[in-house]
Amino acid sequence: MHASFFQFIALMAIASGAAAQGLPAGCDRSMTVQSGDTCDAISAAYNASTYQLASVNSGIIDAGCDNLYVGEVLCLGITGQDCNITHVIASGDTCYSVSTAANISVNLLLQNNPNVNTICTNLYPGEVLCTGNQTYVNVTYSK
Questions:
Q1: Which of 26, 34, 45, 111 has its CA 20 to 30 A from that of 73?
Q2: pTM
Q3: What is the average per-residue pLDDT within 113-125?
């Protein structure tokens, strides 16, 4: 009975170590996935934009964010690029209303949330946007 308990503890330690090894260099903060977590719920709870969570965990989270598993460790932000000032989109929100409430320009909102299209028609309730007042995301577009 005691042997199986210790085997269980050893397996959990190995699993935790393996999950933590996948974190990107410079990971500033992290969290462990719990039962029922979704990317948007994690983003809202930890003030990390939906884009930021997906981009810093691009080797872990798939595009639909439907491959999370309990006990998985995710990075929430990279040192120097960690926007932790956020807004959770509600029905009726627009880029203009979000940027006005955050006292930032629409251009800065779009720069920090490159997943949002330039005419802001792809916002959805529950999405979490970075509303920090400085540039956190540097994206280069090719023509």
A1: 111
A2: 0.80
A3: 96
